[in-house]
Specification:
- The chain is an alpha/beta fold.
- It has two domains: about 190 residues, Rossmann fold (3-Layer(aba) Sandwich), CATH 3.40.50; about 100 residues, Magnesium chelatase subunit I, C-Terminal domain (Helicase, Ruva Protein, domain 3, Orthogonal Bundle), CATH 1.10.8.80.
- It contains 15 helices and eleven strands.
- Strands 2-5-8-1-9 form a five-stranded parallel β-sheet. A two-stranded antiparallel sheet has the order 3-4.
- A hairpin with a 2-residue loop joins strand 6 and strand 7.
- Helix 13 packs antiparallel against helix 15.
- The protein is globular.
- The relative contact order is 0.15.
């Protein structure tokens, strides 16, 4: 039997998310799928990589989300000369004026926030990109041998421009794997773009009302992990991931032809966790097959490494995942 308190908490989460989406809609026009995926990742305790051309309101969306959730927000513009200490912080020598003694004092960097926007993360060298690895995985940074815990919740949103690749540094697979979702931010449709133009050229600045605080987000994140999932649904998620691995069993012909490396175990974990979050955000205290199918693309698209044949034939990782969703039998 389901826990009655948890069932009621899921309904409260659903109402809170509806209020949050209304507040975001005051400022951000459209992008409903993007907003849903960001909220799923937030309440599942994951990080997001947003991929889209400039001018699609990625920064505005993240800033507005932080305001509506009453969270500390910092933005870092990644550039080729950015150093790791510019993100994590550094130690400085401080002199006590009364005694004359000198000691080290830690100055926190912008990573010490609830929401960190890493703008154009692929424009900085790997050494600086790697400064986020410990923060994303361990929720802490180590400076001078001392560990400094990050505030909770901690949510990294990184952006990439998919068009111009000159002078960029692609994220290594180990760091890509730390992102729960790769979210594609697409152009608005005609009606949405008309609303954007009218709203942004008028003498009016919309504001949002705070809907949730950090403590409530933490409580709901713990609730998401308690949402049950049936064994056959967990196996379905597992099967989707395992069919991307060449030489590890019976895989579809399309995978053998176009995939170099398949998704790792973290993809299976995030598929189940994201499906739980999606169900909870929808007000359901149980996971359905549609939840797994809806989160499969953002979870798996950046974890499958396509080969040269795929690039030559114009086959994307999205097409590979969609093929798996069509061919994988749900039992």
């Amino acid at each position: 039997m389901p826990d009655e308190q948890d069932v009621q908490a899921v309904h409260r989460l659903h109402e809170a998310v509806e209020n949050l989406q209304r507040e975001l809609g005051k400022v951000v026009v459209g992008q409903h799928d993007v907003i849903e995926q960001l909220l799923i990742a937030l309440f599942a305790g994951g990080h997001c990589l947003l991929v889209g051309v400039p001018g699609l309101a990625k920064t505005l969306l993240v800033r507005t989300l932080a305001e509506a959730l009453s969270l500390d927000f910092n933005r870092v513009q990644f550039t080729p000369d950015l150093m790791p200490a510019d993100i994590t912080g550094t130690e400085v020598i401080q002199e006590d004026r009364s005694s004359g003694e000198r000691s080290f004092r830690f100055l926190p960097g912008p990573v010490f926030a609830n929401v960190l926007l890493a703008d154009e993360i692929n424009r900085t060298p790997p050494k600086t990109q790697a400064a986020l690895l410990e923060a994303m995985q361990e929720q802490q940074v180590t400076i001078g041998g001392q560990r400094h815990t990050l505030p909770q919740p901690f949510f990294v949103l990184a952006t990439q421009n998919p068009i111009e690749q000159e002078g960029t540094y692609p994220l290594p697979e180990a760091q890509l794997d730390r992102f729960m979702f790769e979210v594609l931010v697409d152009y608005p449709d005609e009606q949405e773009e008309l609303r954007i133009v009218k709203q942004t050229t008028a003498d009016f600045t919309p504001s949002v009302t705070v809907t949730l605080g950090a403590d409530e987000i933490q409580t709901f994140a713990q609730l998401v992990r308690r949402v049950p999932i049936a064994d056959h649904l967990a196996r379905y998620a597992l099967q989707l991931v395992r069919q991307t691995r060449i030489g590890k069993g019976d895989v579809p012909e399309l995978v053998r032809q176009y995939v170099s490396w398949g998704a790792g175990p973290r993809a299976s974990q995030y598929l189940v966790l994201a499906a739980k979050a999606r169900a909870a955000l929808d007000g359901r205290y149980c996971v359905g097959s549609e939840d797994i199918q809806e989160v499969a693309l953002p979870v798996m698209r950046h974890r499958i490494i396509a080969n040269f044949n795929a690039e030559a034939d114009g086959v994307s990782t999205d097409a590979i995942v969609e093929h798996l969703l069509e061919k994988t039998a749900f039992k």
